[in-house]
Design brief:
This protein is an all-alpha fold. 70% of the residues lie in helices and 0% in strands. Helix 3 packs parallel to helix 22.
Length: 564
């Protein structure tokens, strides 16, 4: 049966039943393996069980790759292969992250799994290039190789340090050395993106298929980079590194720079959008210094990029490079120059601030709380004049920073051990939505999601986590959903209810009894098999029948040899 035209106009074909089942399957195996690993994490006597979990993830990833090749090469069902390709990228890093649970107790199995995992990941990347997404730019491929090396080598290096009872400072130094390998891989991705002429990223695409487009290849690269950043965060917990949120500022900076370059490559440079992307890491750096949420000081050496003022100076240089590009225009150059000046001022004025790890260090206090609140009001009015989302985001961020810097509120946050990021996200998310209600009648969907997502994350961390001093899960979840309903009724942005319902869903999920991990793993393979069955049913149709348009059965796209 041919899908109706109205349905085709509303939803892309890859969001239909098979792809949804693939996503459910991936969620089931991740939940099952996570439950098994968490139960056995503290037990070195069950190393074999942990290795079985790692093996299950690798097997599942190979099944995903085989299914993708079958869909594209044999059955010519390209739309479902998009979801499978995304899952393959996520599981490449997930298998490397799972080694962190084995490494502290068994370095030799970690070394063997890491070597085998790196070879398998390289083979999977080659298969993606040859049969699914087309030819990567050589710089992108080199950058992804560096990221894979970091992912599969890091667990063994840190695991050996744990086995020989190395001091925590030594383990952190090893982690920082790994950061520089990560910078190398991310730098190659940035170099490849910056060489694409403005708005010309799709110039070499052949055919209409998204699977073989340059956008898909960059999606693969960005997913692997994001997964690597996630692995860096997971290593903090797995190897007891005692890092703080501010130590991960370089990840935010790299993500913002790459997003700006890709936005320019696929569209055109936009001052407002790029400003919002580049100012977000600066706001995070301000929050890190204000909350003493960092561990590397001015004498950090290898850790200087993780020191917030050092990070700000590096970002100032990177933004100045963007401003100096001749193809951006004078107005854009001035805007980027202003952002670079803000980063430089922050870096120079606060260079020398001591992190909390320094004995006797006084907590740094933001003295401009009234000025920050005034800035929030001014930016809110500016957002009403310009009708843009980025002033509203800046208004919410400055208002949240101003509230956090008030002495009594700050003392409450410290006394309750709430951290800095969660209250900041809660306040900024609520403030952003209030600005949206009061000033902005229309807002891009991507920007409109920022408020509900930040607000929901803050509620979950502050009111849902086990043992939290403010833990009232059901009441907090219901209140958060009611707040989102009130905002949606005013702004007519009903998709915001999805993240708004997340706190209540988390509360319900934690109250229910958890099934056994291996049962979830088995269900994941069953869901994957059902998705393959539904995808197989499409192969008897014409190549584009799912989109509501008939085409000749022989229209089989080639593997694609276009550069990203």
């Amino acid at each position: 049966m041919v899908a109706s035209a109205s349905r085709d106009r509303r939803f892309p074909p890859w969001l239909w039943a098979p792809s949804a089942l693939y996503a459910v399957s991936a969620g089931l195996i991740l939940a099952g393996v996570a439950q098994l690993l968490l139960q056995s994490y503290a037990g070195p006597e069950i190393v074999a069980g942990k290795c079985l979990c790692v093996g299950a993830l690798n097997l599942y990833e190979l099944v995903l790759l085989g299914t993708s090749l079958l869909l594209v090469v044999r059955w010519r069902v390209l739309d479902d292969a998009i979801a499978l390709t995304v899952l393959i990228c996520l599981f490449v890093v997930a298998t490397a992250t799972s080694l962190d649970t084995v490494a502290p107790h068994a370095s030799r199995p970690t070394l063997l799994f890491g070597a085998a995992g790196f070879l398998l990941a390289g083979a999977k990347l080659l298969a993606l290039e040859r049969a699914l997404v087309g030819r990567f730019d050589r710089r992108v491929l080199a950058g992804l190789a560096a990221l894979l090396v970091w992912n599969f080598v890091l667990p063994n290096v840190l695991g050996r340090a744990v086995v020989r009872d190395a001091f925590q400072t030594e383990r952190v130094q090893l982690w920082l050395v790994g950061w520089w390998a990560l910078f190398g891989g991310a730098g190659l991705l940035l170099a490849a993106a910056s060489r694409i002429p403005t708005g010309q990223a799709r110039r070499a695409d052949v055919g209409p298929d998204f699977l073989r487009s340059s956008a898909m290849r960059w999606l693969v690269a960005c997913l692997l980079l994001a997964g690597t950043f996630q692995h860096a965060v997971a290593a903090n917990w797995a190897f007891n590194l005692e890092l703080a949120a501010g130590d991960f500022l370089p990840a935010a900076g790299v993500a913002a720079l790459l997003a700006v370059e890709l936005r320019r490559a696929f569209r055109a440079p936009g001052l407002y959008g790029d400003s919002g992307l580049l100012l977000a890491p600066l706001a995070a750096a301000v929050a890190a210094v204000g909350g003493q949420a960092y561990t590397q000081g001015p004498e950090a050496g290898l850790g200087l990029p993780c020191y917030p003022p050092g990070f700000a100076l590096g970002m100032a240089a990177a933004v100045l490079y963007l401003a100096a590009r001749p193809d951006r225009g004078l107005l854009y150059a001035r805007g980027m120059g202003g952002i670079a000046l803000a980063y430089a001022a922050f870096g120079f004025l606060l260079f020398g601030s001591a992190p909390v790890s320094v004995p006797g260090a006084e907590p740094f206090r933001l003295n401009g709380s009234v000025a920050l609140l005034a800035l929030a009001v001014g930016l809110g009015v500016l957002s009403a004049r310009l009708g843009r989302a980025w002033p509203a985001l800046a208004s919410a961020a400055s208002g949240a920073a101003g509230i956090l810097s008030l002495d009594h509120f700050r003392e409450f946050v410290v006394a309750q051990d709430l951290g800095v990021l969660a209250p900041f996200a809660l306040l900024a998310g609520a403030g952003f939505q209030l600005v949206h209600c009061l000033f902005l009648r229309r807002m891009p969907a991507g920007a409109a999601f920022a408020g509900p997502v930040a607000f929901a994350w803050g509620v979950i961390v502050l009111f849902e986590r086990n043992g939290a001093p403010l833990a009232h899960p059901f009441a907090a979840g219901a209140a958060a959903l009611a707040f989102q309903l009130a905002v949606a009724s005013r702004t007519r942005f009903w998709p915001g209810l999805v993240p708004g319902a997340a706190p209540l869903a988390v509360a319900v999920g934690r109250s229910s009894s958890e099934p056994r991990g291996w049962f979830l793993v088995g269900l994941s393979f069953l869901a994957l098999a059902k998705g393959v069955q539904l995808s197989r049913a499409k192969s008897g149709r014409t190549a584009l029948e799912v989109g509501g348009v008939e085409a000749a059965p022989s229209a089989r796209p080639g593997p694609g040899a276009v550069g990203a």
